[in-house]
Design brief:
116 residues; mainly beta; five-stranded mixed beta barrel; 6 strands
Length: 116
């Protein structure tokens, strides 16, 4: 049950083609991309359905990062499984900021780019 404490599952579309880079002395593969997750929300007063889209920062390491760059492109719908990672960083003016991203361990392609 310990592995359920910090677990995220999302389905969404890639906002751009993922790019991979090598980091650290051992040159680990790292891929970062944005994932748009949309859901329909019914307005309680009008009864109309509205689309609500939330963008998530996604990171992947190692072989998963390499598979993502070799197989995915902008607009592809995927399911991801991972965990939340909180990061703290300082701006040039000394201000401390926090960010949350999803570090994925696995993914599955659901649908290629939609044709409009």
């Amino acid at each position: 049950m310990n592995n359920l404490k910090n677990k995220v599952n999302l389905i969404g579309r890639l906002g751009a083609k993922p790019e991979m880079r090598k980091v650290g002395e051992k040159e680990y593969s790292l891929t970062r991309f944005s994932l748009a997750v949309s859901e329909g929300i019914k307005d309680k007063t009008t009864g109309e359905w509205n689309n609500n889209t939330v963008w998530h920062a996604i990171t992947a390491w190692g072989k998963v990062a390499e598979r993502i760059c070799n197989t995915l492109d902008k607009g592809v719908e995927i399911a991801v499984e991972g965990r939340l990672v909180q990061k703290e960083y300082q701006l040039k003016d000394g201000t401390t900021k926090n960010s949350v991203e999803i570090e994925i361990q696995d993914f599955m392609m659901i649908q290629r780019k939609s044709i409009n």
